């Protein structure tokens, strides 16, 4: 079974530039999550989708971050404009509410460096 | 709000030593509890979970018991190996939308290094 795919793996941008990350969840997983992991900390949930609807974006800095999940499959997370403190690993995860395993499966992440 | 506090590392052990990584939580309701592991260069993987009080999760020789009375979920392994070197994260489910358990609140992580 293919896992959660993310791209790119690494990205370096200057502050005030924009950047986008892409995620393809495990086939059939209705729920998709974006997490931000700052160095030395645990991941923090940014946004959760159920199919193509948002169910939790309470911790998403909406003045600069946006995310969409068109057609309920792939998702993109965008930052515009980026700040130095956005340097982090951005993790995508997916899960299914049905079956024996309802926990989240994580991709390898995109490491963003803002200079 | 809900939170997870886990023992800060790094933790360095010799092979075959006993491992304990402490984790306590604060939550309303009855969350599910998880341990995730991140091996060098890899993504987060679920190690074990427990969904209700007194449940014991176990996998690969690791165990953790959901203790509601002490709000704890300590990770233990009787004999660690070099291959267990990784970062371990304790987490609780912050929301349960229709059965999915991926809305998680994580601790800061504990880095474990096992020396031969």
Q: What is the overall number of helices of chain A?
A: 0
The portion of residues assigned to helices of chain B is: under 10%
Radius of gyration of chain B: 14 Å
Task: Give the strand tally of chain B.
Answer: 12
Kindly estimate the percentage of residues of chain A that lie in beta strands according to DSSP. Answer: over 45%
Shape of chain B: globular
Structural class of chain B: mainly beta
Largest interface: A-B, 30 and 26 residues
Query: How widely separated are the two ends of chain A?
Result: 37 Å
Give the overall form of chain A. Answer: globular
User: Quick check: average pLDDT of chain A?
Assistant: 93
Q: Characterize the main sheet of chain B.
A: 6 strands, mixed
Describe the structure.
The complex is a heterodimer of chains A (115) and B (116). With 115 residues, chain A is mainly beta. In chain A, 0% of the residues lie in helices and 48% in strands. Chain A is built from no helices and 11 strands. In chain A, strand 7 and strand 8 (75-79) form a beta hairpin. Chain B is mainly beta. In chain B, the strands form 3 sheets. In chain B, strands 2, 5, 6, 10, 11 and 12 form a 6-stranded mixed beta sheet that branches. In chain B, a hairpin with a 7-residue loop joins strand 10 (86-95) and strand 11.
Q: Would you summarize the structure shown here?
A:
Chain A is an all-beta fold and 115 residues long.
What secondary-structure arrangement, pairings included, does this model have?
The complex is a heterodimer of chains A (115) and B (116).
Chain A: E1 5-7, E2 10-13, E3 19-24, E4 31-37, E5 44-50, E6 53-56, E7 65-68, E8 75-79, E9 88-95, E10 105-106, E11 110-114
Chain B: E1 3-6, E2 11-14, E3 19-21, E4 23-26, E5 33-38, E6 44-50, E7 56-59, E8 62-65, E9 75-77, E10 86-95, E11 103-106, E12 110-115
Parallel strand pairs in B: 2-12
Antiparallel strand pairs in B: 1-4, 3-9, 5-6, 5-10, 7-8, 8-9, 10-11, 10-12
